[in-house]
Structures are given as structure tokens and as C-alpha cells.
Write a structure and sequence with these properties.
heterodimer; A: 461 residues; alpha/beta; Rossmann fold; 4-stranded parallel β-sheet; globular; B: alpha/beta; Nucleotidyltransferase, domain 5; 2 domains; 5-stranded mixed β-sheet; 40% helix
């Protein structure tokens, strides 16, 4: 069933759902009207968001919002659950390669205070557990581990440490002290190879010292042994190769989706749905197999809309590159309300969008991918990629979102701003978005509108 | 062609009526902001029109700007205060390269290109440090009239050192300074320096001269000196600085109306 694309409120989606159902909508087991996620899980924030009106977007949201249910079902069916923390996209590829092992992303609890509009009291409880607001909202994960009201407790917890976010390391250490043993693996801070030092190509056009790749490879092999013990079978090279191929299918699908949406003359999909879709690259929303058709349906819808020139926002919207994920999903809607459209993104895991090399020994390939993580290298590397993407997608303005308390935000903003200013002279704005940003909406709106006004003024001769 | 700009700020609503044909301001109005923002905007707009002898139907276009711009129901469109201040300043002093605007709740540094277009801008974050709100808190603490703080600061012999990072912390410091018997004039001058320091930190790098100071806080004696000293460059105060945003809005309204009339059949 085709119709003109719109951004709908939750109430409007109820009506749209009825229309789709009458037209013979076929849904997977996790389908249903969006409003049920408010009623069942108290996700009040959904009442204040605007959603894309396609059946593909409905499937995406339902897939996302049923993750905890999916994990509980998997546990009941005997699957082993692995919490893969901080690592954004590498260990889940290994875990998914094993039978009846399901990785998930406990850090994803950082969106729970937003979705539940703080009625969950996770942030207050995190405060009481020693992680106050000077830490990133990922601290919501701590009480979520203790109260069993969100995700089920994993059978194995794995966390990367070293050159990763400082406050995440602190939060994870606190979690361990609270009685949740963690299998740590070390991530060195990526650096440029010294002259004459053996070097390796990394995904994303980066180069790293071979010694660092070797270090990460050994760490991942150690993790692989533990995963094998959990699964009761070895994580063989063949299994990982198959896992890499499956992960790359998803990454290719995401690349297609991004290219279709960001390069289009208008916006075939809204910013919010693109953020959610890209997040699937990190941990597959606990179901790698289902992830692919969810993304494929979204890409098909985007392609159809581009072909029929049906866009969700006016064609003259300013083409915006967005840096960092937002603690409050409402901020993505705000971009469109201000007259912008998402045409490029760096949500801190661009390495999870790059293909994992399939022509290398599998642990070597995964190690190179992990070392290409934008969070473990200099912000200048990240800035370089952002500038390249800005050129590729004809970006007119850049929004850098800061996450309150996140230790990486203060030091990465300037290098990114400076490189964009130096190479492209695009208007840039930095905004800090708390988990519930309602009280700040007027000031956030002013900042975003101002940067879009500057971009529009530059269109004039 | 008469157009209007409404700057619905956090502390006051300002109205400017601009006659495009004669290229001159033909009316100004100002009222305190309050809870009933839409009604207050309506009232001051009507009062300004009446005072200028203009019938409402003569106004071709209205641009609302400022913190409360989206609550000005009768506006043709809204434009941010960054763009409006830039436009107003370009009209008043076209050579200006940097604007410092300090209002009741926000402060901004706006860098301009040749031709008055905005190159980039910085705004205060959530904290009221570096804004007029700090002066209001000081006035309340000193039991003084806000408008007299500038004169008071001129009597200072040794400005107090006051935190520029947080107004709440700074208020605690002011209480401590008063308890120690530090003269109110020194505290007032110290607060002005603190605001100027915050603005400089927000700017991030040196400002290109000429620098024009706009916004209601620019009316306060002593603030321009504090800014010039802290920024280490000459700073000029815009004529009637509290109306710069509304003037820019009126000029942009005129442009919108002109564009609409040329594009209509």
C-alpha cells in the first residue's frame, strides 16, 4: 500500500495502523500498533515523537522496542545471553557466530530514561550508586542491571577498556564492584605508525601500527575462547568467517540505505528513523537474522519514495550532517521542525558501518575493524572522515550534539569544528542534549534554526 | 511599505516599525515580558502602531524573533535573534565584524562576513552566567534598582573578583563579599567583569574589530568598559541597543514582503 509519506504522532499512527491493517498489512511476531509500547512499557516519550508513516518504519520501531521481550524469550528457549559493552560492533559479530548465543547491548539502557521520561528513576538510582550527573547517561545501565525490570541479566559480560570512553570504563568498573563479573579486553589508543614501523590498512581509510592490530587480535582471540566456553563449542575460523559475512550483509544494507537517503534530492526518510536504523549496526538489536529484512524493507521504501519523488519534508530543507547520537530522541525530530534534513551522520560507530575485510584471517579482520573505531583514535581522524562525508553528501551545515557528562565530548568538538571550518567553512553548531530536553527545546531550536538560517543565506548569490 | 519586527525576549518585548520606502524607523515600543506572552506581544504591538498613527492593515509583514518568537501568533514568520541582530547591526554599522549581544537570558557572540552575513556564532549554554540575569540577581541581592547598577559600578575603586562559571556559585560569593563588608560598587563592577569574562570564554578566540555591543545590558554604564578591557579591543554600543534585534526583524520583514510582491503575479 502506498501513500504520501508523513511524520505522524503516536495517536495519528493508531489511525494509520488501522488503515494498514485493513489493507492487509503482514507483520512479524513483534508487530502491532506503536501505542502498545506506551501502555506496556511506559515509554511515554513515544507520545512526543513524530514517526515516519511507512510500514517499514513501523517494523523498525517494533523491532527496536521489543528487544527486551526478545531477549527474555531467547533466555527461556535456552539461548545464552552476552552483554557486549562499550565495544560498538565487533564482539557481537563473534558472539552471533556461535549457536544459541545472543549478544545485546546493555549500554542501550542510556535511552531508557528518555523513553520513560525518567519515570524509571534509573538516573536517580544511578546517582545513589555513585555515578552522578557528571557521568554520561549510560550510567542508567547500572540500576538496570540490578532491578531486572529492563533487560535480563546476561550469562557473560564483556567490555572493552583502555582507549574507550573514560566514564564508560568507570561505570563498568562500578558495575563489576556491584557483583557483575566482566571479561575485560584491552583496546590500545590508535596512533599513526612511526616512520619505518610495520603498518596495516584499517577500514575507513585509516592506517594503524601492525603491533596494535596484533594486540587487539590477541585480545579478541582471548574473548573468543570465553565465548566458545559459554556456547559449549569452539569459535572456529569457519564460524567467524560466516559471522563476518552475515554482519557484512547488514553493513552493506545500511550502506545502501544511507546512500539512498543521504544522497537523495529530498528526504525519503526522517532523521529519527535513520538514527535508529544505523544503531542496528552495533548489536543487531539482539537478532541478526531479523535485522536484515528490517533494514531491507526500509531501504526499499526509501528507494520507492526517491523514485516517486515523495519526501517527508520540503525539498528546500538544509542538508545537515549530525555528529554523535542524542540522549533525547526528540532532538532528531527537532532538526526537521527547524527546516533541516539529515544527510550525513557520525553516531560514534562509523567503523561498524564499514565492511569487515573478508580476505583476511577472521580475527585479524575483526581486530582491524575494532581498531578503526572512531572513539579509540584521535578526534582528528574522525574529523577527516566527517569532512569527506560532508563533501560526498553536499552538506550545508553541521550539528555536533554533546552528551551531558560524556568525557569525550569536550575534547572532540574543537578538532571536528576546526577541520570543518578549515576545509569546508560550513556553519556549525554544538548543542548539548540531556535525556529529556523539553525545557531546553526553545534554546535548542534557536541554535539549530540559526545554523540553518546561515546555511540558507549562503545559498543566495 | 511598512513592516514590523517584534523581539520577544526573556525580559522585554520590543517592537520596531520600519518604513521601507523612506528607509526609516517610524515607531518603537517596549514592554516587560510576562507569563501571558502572546497577549503582551499583541498589546505592545497595538500600542506602538497607535502611537505611530499606523493602521494595522498598513503593515505588510511582521517578523518575530527572540526567545518567545514562536508565541507571537500574528507574525508572518519567525527568524532567530542571531540573524536579526546581524541584519540590524549591518543596517546601523555595516563595517561591523563582531557583535556581542547580552540580553536577559542569553548572550551571543556573532561573527560577520563582508556584507553582514553571519559567519558563525556562539551562545551561552544553559547557565545564566554571562547574561543580564546575573545583573538581576545582583540587583536583588543588593536591594538595588537594576537600572542603577551601572552607575553604582562606576564608583568602584577595586572591582571584586567573582566567579564567571556559574551564577548560583557567584551569588554565594556575593553573599560572602557583602558579609566581609566589600562595597556594593566593587561587587557591581566585579559582576560586570565576570559577565565580560564569560562572554570572552564563549567567543573562544579573539574577536575581529569593529565590535558592536547590542542587547539591553549594553545600556548599563560600565558594561562596555568591562567588555572592552576583557576583550582587549574597542567596543562600541549600538544606538538604542535593546532594539537591534527588533530592527533587524523589521528589515527582514521588509525584505520578505518585497520578495513576495516581486514573485506574485
Amino acid at each position: 500500500m502506498t501513500h504520501s509519506p508523513l511524520q505522524l504522532t503516536l495517536t495519528e499512527w493508531d489511525q494509520r495502523y488501522a488503515e494498514l491493517a485493513r489493507a492487509g498489512l503482514r507483520e512479524p511476531w513483534y508487530g502491532g500498533p506503536l501505542a502498545r509500547h506506551v501502555e506496556r512499557e511506559n515509554n511515554e516519550r513515544l507520545r512526543r515523537l513524530r514517526f515516519d508513516s511507512s510500514a517499514a518504519a513501523l517494523r523498525l520501531w517494533n523491532f527496536l522496542l521489543t528487544e527486551n521481550e526478545r531477549l527474555r524469550t531467547a533466555r527461556a528457549q535456552g539461548d545464552r545471553l552476552v552483554g557486549t559493552m562499550k565495544d560498538l560492533g565487533t564482539v557481537p559479530v563473534m558472539a552471533c557466530a556461535l549457536p544459541k548465543v545472543r549478544p545485546f547491548y546493555p549500554d542501550g539502557a542510556w535511552w531508557t530514561p528518555c523513553l520513560m521520561e525518567c519515570s524509571d528513576r534509573l538516573l536517580v538510582q544511578a546517582d545513589a550508586l555513585g555515578t552522578d550527573p557528571s557521568f554520561c547517561p549510560v550510567r542508567a545501565m547500572l540500576p538496570a542491571f540490578l532491578n531486572d525490570e529492563h533487560f535480563p541479566r546476561p550469562d557473560l559480560l564483556i567490555c572493552s577498556t583502555g582507549a574507550v570512553c573514560d566514564d564508560f570504563s568507570a561505570i563498568a568498573q562500578r558495575l563489576e564492584r556491584l557483583g557483575h563479573p566482566i571479561l575485560w579486553w584491552e583496546m590500545p589508543r590508535r596512533r599513526a605508525p612511526d616512520p619505518g614501523e610495520p603498518a596495516c590498512d584499517l577500514p575507513g581509510g585509516l592506517i594503524g601500527p601492525a603491533g596494535q592490530v596484533e594486540c587487539v587480535r590477541e585480545e579478541l582471540q582471548r574473548v573468543g575462547v570465553e565465548l566458545g566456553k559459554l556456547a559449549g563449542c569452539d569459535l572456529t575460523h569457519e564460524r567467524i568467517r560466516a559471522g563476518i559475512r552475515s554482519a557484512n550483509q547488514i553493513r552493506r544494507q545500511l550502506q545502501t540505505l544511507r546512500q539512498t537517503v543521504y544522497a537523495a534530492p529530498g528526504a525519503p526518510l526522517p532523521a529519527l528513523e535513520m538514527l535508529i536504523a544505523e544503531m542496528l549496526a552495533v548489536h543487531f538489536c539482539s537478532d541478526r537474522g531479523e535485522c536484515l529484512p528490517v533494514l531491507a524493507e526500509l531501504a526499499t521504501e526509501a528507494t520507492r519514495r526517491v523514485a516517486t519523488r515523495q519526501f517527508v519534508i520540503p525539498d528546500d530543507a538544509v542538508r545537515v550532517f549530525w555528529v554523535n547520537p542524542v540522549a533525547d530522541l526528540r532532538a532528531m525530530n527537532l532538526l526537521e521542525a527547524c527546516g533541516g534534513r539529515l544527510c550525513g551522520s557520525d553516531f560514534m560507530f562509523t567503523h561498524a558501518l564499514d565492511l569487515i575485510p573478508e580476505d583476511l584471517p577472521p580475527f585479524e579482520a575483526l581486530a582491524r575493524t575494532a581498531l578503526a573505531d572512531p572513539m579509540v583514535g584521535p578526534a582528528q581522524d574522525r574529523a577527516r572522515r566527517i569532512v569527506d562525508d560532508c563533501r560526498r553528501f553536499k552538506i550545508e551545515a553541521v550539528v555536533i550534539a554533546r552528551i551531558p557528562g560524556a568525557s569525550h565530548c569536550p575534547w572532540e568538538g574543537n578538532p571536528i569544528r576546526e577541520r570543518i571550518a578549515d576545509k569546508l567553512a560550513l556553519p556549525i553548531v554544538e548543542i548539548e542534549i540531556p535525556p529529556v530536553c523539553d525545557a531546553l527545546l526553545p534554546t535548542l531550536r534557536t541554535r539549530i534554526e540559526a545554523v540553518l538560517e546561515i546555511a540558507r543565506a549562503r545559498r543566495e548569490p | 511599505m511598512i513592516c514590523a519586527g517584534i523581539d520577544a525576549g526573556s525580559r522585554a518585548i520590543k517592537v520596531v516599525l520600519f518604513d521601507h520606502a523612506r528607509s526609516m524607523v517610524i515607531g518603537r515600543g517596549l514592554a516587560d515580558q510576562g507569563v501571558a506572552q502572546p497577549r503582551l506581544a499583541e498589546e505592545i504591538f497595538a500600542a506602538t502602531l497607535s502611537k505611530a498613527g499606523i493602521d494595522r492593515h498598513q503593515v505588510r509583514s511582521v517578523v518575530a524573533t527572540g526567545y518567545g518568537r514562536n508565541r507571537v501568533a500574528f507574525a508572518t514568520t519567525t527568524i532567530t535573534e542571531i540573524t536579526c541582530h546581524a541584519r540590524g547591526v549591518f543596517h546601523l554599522a555595516p563595517d561591523t565584524r563582531s557583535i556581542v549581544e547580552i540580553g536577559g537570558q542569553d548572550s551571543k557572540v556573532i561573527r560577520l562576513e563582508n556584507g553582514g552575513r553571519v559567519r558563525d556564532f556562539a551562545m551561552n549554554d544553559r547557565c545564566a552566567a554571562g547574561t543580564g540575569r546575573f545583573l538581576e540577581i545582583l540587583a536583588a541581592r543588593l536591594d538595588a534598582d537594576w537600572s542603577k547598577l551601572g552607575d553604582l559600578s562606576q564608583q568602584s575603586r577595586q572591582p571584586a573578583l567573582i566567579s564567571s562559571t556559574c551564577v548560583v556559585f557567584a551569588e554565594t560569593e556575593i553573599i560572602g563579599l557583602l558579609a566581609e563588608g566589600v562595597p556594593a560598587a566593587d561587587i557591581a563592577a566585579g559582576v560586570q567583569n565576570s559577565i565580560a569574562t564569560r562572554v570572552m570564554a564563549m567567543a573562544g578566540r579573539p574577536l575581529t574589530a569593529p565590535v558592536l555591543f547590542t542587547g539591553g545590558v549594553a545600556l548599563q554604564p560600565g558594561m562596555v568598559r568591562a567588555l572592552a578591557t576583557t576583550l582587549d579591543c574597542p567596543v562600541q554600543v549600538a544606538p538604542e541597543p535593546q532594539f537591534t534585534g527588533a530592527l533587524g526583524a523589521a528589515l527582514l520583514a521588509a525584505r520578505i514582503a518585497a520578495t513576495a510582491s516581486t514573485s506574485s503575479p
